[in-house]
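Structure (tokenized):
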């Protein structure tokens, strides 16, 4: 078992502040996801947990104990690296066996364990091939198998399924979620795909530029983003964020709720806009209609501002139509000048 926590961890590479006062807590057995754009510091966090990089400031605790000065091997954490690093001269099977062979585990026990993991990851049929004869997706599965074959304190995975095509990625993330629950082990998982993050994580941390901007369950972060940054990171299409004077009685977006004093903008998710055909007045015009099967995306223009609405299924609304837009006050978000969520007074 292993809980992992960062307390005010900072890391510089030369002048570059790669991690800026990062704190978070991963509970034992949790599926914890780090999500953020390129170069925001995700891999650096994993390498610090693994013990490959030492923080400049702050403390890293595994199971409540500081791991300062503890060598990677002693930490007993299995990692799937972003660049995979399979041994090219070994077959997939030898690659998967390697971590156990290196530790002198009995060969028969290794074979059983490898067969078990290979079946879970659907790679039994490719075990005899060398990495050069595998597709990108197959190589990623072999690399995951090589980590799962061990019995470590925790697993770290750095964007492990990014090379898979969309459908296989959906299948694999469901598998990973199931495997993690079966193994009952802490998993810290990096991805730059918001849908993947939301689908697998118990808890996720959203990062920007070396900082963690918000931590919580996917649903918490989706429903209560603490900033326009987090609001825009989750959800596709992204939240509409408009100046406050677009919403209210007689405004392009009809809205009759209370507005926090410090708010300067209103955020509304595309699925929370209610759309009705209307006469051209002070509503919006439909600029584009995208029928996507299970839902339809409308691009709307109101006084030169564009916003996106999604409707379930199909719609009769067409490009060039005029619509009235309403929003349920409970589904509106407000942000202040700094981009932070604005709270209603009282
Ligand atoms: N060994 C290193 N030497 C110098 N700078 C580094 C090193 N490792 C990371 N950095 C820098 O630290 C910052 C964070 O990098 P990191 O690799 O953690 O980002 P990331 O979130 O994993 O990005 P990506 O999504 O592209 O993998 C970047 O500015 C990167 O250039
Ligand atoms: Mg990285």
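Design, position by position:
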């Amino acid at each position: 078992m292993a809980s992992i926590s960062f307390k005010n961890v900072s890391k510089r590479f030369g002048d570059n502040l790669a991690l800026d006062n990062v704190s978070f807590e991963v509970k034992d057995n949790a599926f914890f996801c780090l999500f953020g754009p390129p170069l925001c510091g995700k891999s650096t966090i994993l390498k610090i947990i693994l013990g490959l990089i030492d923080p400049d400031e702050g403390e890293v605790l595994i199971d409540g104990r500081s791991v300062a000065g503890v060598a990677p091997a002693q930490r007993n954490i299995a990692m799937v690296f972003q660049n995979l690093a399979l041994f090219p001269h070994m077959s997939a099977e030898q690659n998967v066996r390697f971590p156990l062979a290196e530790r002198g585990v009995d060969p028969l026990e290794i074979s059983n364990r490898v067969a078990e993991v290979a079946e879970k990851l659907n790679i039994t049929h490719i075990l005899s091939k060398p990495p050069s004869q595998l597709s990108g997706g197959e190589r990623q599965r072999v690399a995951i198998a090589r980590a799962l074959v061990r019995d470590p304190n925790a697993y770290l995975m750095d964007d492990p399924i990014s090379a898979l095509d969309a459908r296989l990625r959906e299948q694999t993330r469901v598998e990973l979620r199931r495997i993690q629950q079966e193994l009952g082990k802490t998993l810290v998982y990096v991805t730059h795909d918001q849908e993947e993050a939301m689908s697998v994580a118990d808890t996720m941390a959203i990062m920007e530029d070396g900082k963690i901007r918000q931590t919580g369950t996917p649903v918490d972060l989706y429903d209560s983003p603490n900033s326009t940054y987090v609001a825009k990171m989750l959800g596709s299409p992204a939240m509409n964020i408009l100046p406050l004077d677009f919403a209210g009685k007689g405004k392009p977006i009809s809205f009759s709720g209370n507005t926090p004093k410090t708010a300067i903008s209103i955020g509304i998710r595309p699925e929370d806009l209610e759309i009705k055909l209307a006469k051209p007045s002070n509503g919006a015009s439909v600029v584009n209609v995208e029928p996507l099967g299970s839902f339809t995306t409308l691009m709307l223009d109101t006084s030169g501002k564009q916003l996106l609405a999604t409707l379930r299924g199909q719609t009769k609304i067409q490009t060039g139509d005029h619509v009235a837009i309403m929003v349920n006050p409970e589904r509106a978000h407000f942000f202040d000048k700094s981009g932070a969520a604005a709270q209603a007074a009282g």
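Reviewer-requested clarification: Residues 36 and 192 are 6 Å apart (CA to CA). The longest strand covers residues 16-26.
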